[in-house]
Amino acid sequence: MEGDRMTTQSVADLGPLNRAKEQKAWYWYDWANSAYVTTIATVLFAPYLTSIAEKAACGFVTDEDKGLKCSENLQVLGLGISPGSLVFYVVTVATIFSALVLPIVGAMADRSAKKKNIMAGFAWVGSAAAACMFFVTGDNWQLGVLLLFIANICLGSSLVVYDAILCEIAEPDERDRVSSRGWAMGYLGGGLLLAVNLAVVTFHEELGMSTGMAVRVSMVSAAVWWAAFTFIPYRGIRNREPVAVEREPGGLVRQSFGQLGATLKDMRNYPMTLTFLLGYLFYNDGIQTVIASASIYGEKELGFSTSVLIATILLVQFVAFFGALLFGKLAAKRGSRKVILGGLVVWMVIVTVGYFIPEKNVGMFLGLAVGIGLVLGGTQALSRSFFSQLIPRGREAEYFSLYQACERGTSWLGTLVFGVVHQLTDSYRPAIFALIIFFVVGGALLYRVDPQRGIREAGNQVPQVV
After folding, report:
1. Count of domains forming the chain
2. Beta carbons within 8 Å of 161's beta carbon, 6+ residues apart
3. Does residue 106 sit within a domain?
4. Which domain holds residue 276?
5. CA distances for 172 relative to 90, 359, 385, 386, angstroms
6. Is 216 contained in some domain?
7. Mean pLDDT by 10 residues, the chain (466 residues)
8. Is residue 11 part of a domain?
9. Does any domain span residue 16?
10. DSSP string covering 302-358, please?
């Protein structure tokens, strides 16, 4: 009997060690997909596809044509589309489509015993689409549109499953730390590859390449990075049987639709979860709009050169690495909700300082970038881990799909406010300051969330610090 107890105890002690190994493997998917997000989706592909579309619409063929303004439209299903607006329309359509599809992906993942396979499958299809962007040349903008659409949908789908796996590999008291380290790895990996690719594009002549070839090579490097590093979580995370999943009639697809319908009806039983989700939609929209508008604000309103803006992008990436880790440590002492609320106060200070920053004051602009980096990764990482505590067991992927779908479905609100205020005032200063409303409303809703009540309502274990 004594020997049996010792054997049982020694086996039980392997639990934390095995979780730690899976967590280390899990971090690498943030590192992997951030290459696509930073190099392709954020920096390089939009201007590149725009130039391809302009060539198709206006016949631009040489580098000397870059300074010319294209006044012709592309013809898409009988509609005239401005080449400069094409990328934004594609992202909008992909966003709306993903808002409809991701909940179904999440419902299917919850019923599957092969979550890591689903995550990696979407990642590899998305990275293949990104790699094929190398072949977007001449005036073939249609191929670029198709590949961007596929890559964005696959990225969102893989992240739904990736986030859900967090609930399987980390205990409630570990999730803030694990989520923060994942975000930190993402910013570090994305920043490192972006720095290399920006160097390739900047010094393309010394490397014997045209600008277009340098961009295409850089996009392939991001695709290979995404695909290759996905093997680490694929090999290091183990699949688990689904738990606490309510049975629905029919096959997997029909069961997934049935589960999704039941969940949407049942969400009113989790008021704290809904309140947090609504608050997150507001403050995350503010965050995304600040990031999306920072470069145009720096260039058009503050008069900074492209080199300053590139340095700022890289500064934000690398500071966000340390910011995510810092927020994880603070959450271990104060609880994630309180730390997120503190981060939202800092965001309010950032948009206020942004309103008053003098033109061409590089020092203040870089200081503002440091502030953004410190709270950027932290607020996002802790939002993910806090939301994971509020999800009923067995519905992790489905709830995270709603988390992503709602985020994507409302991500146009901040840019709409920014654009309308700029149009009314003819200045980017009041436009950037107007975003403070998203942090105020989001913070107010988050303040109303009772974390212990929400965690208990979801049937989960309450962490020691919450």
Report:
1. 1
2. 105, 106, 109, 115, 116, 118, 119, 122, 397
3. yes
4. 24-457
5. 38, 46, 9, 9
6. yes
7. 47 73 96 94 85 80 51 73 77 80 85 93 98 94 94 94 94 94 95 94 93 94 98 96 65 57 76 93 89 82 84 91 94 95 97 94 93 92 94 85 70 79 89 95 97 93 86
8. no
9. no
10. S---HHHHHHHHHHHHHHHHHHHHHHHHHHHHH-HHHHHHHHHHHHHHHHHHHHHPP
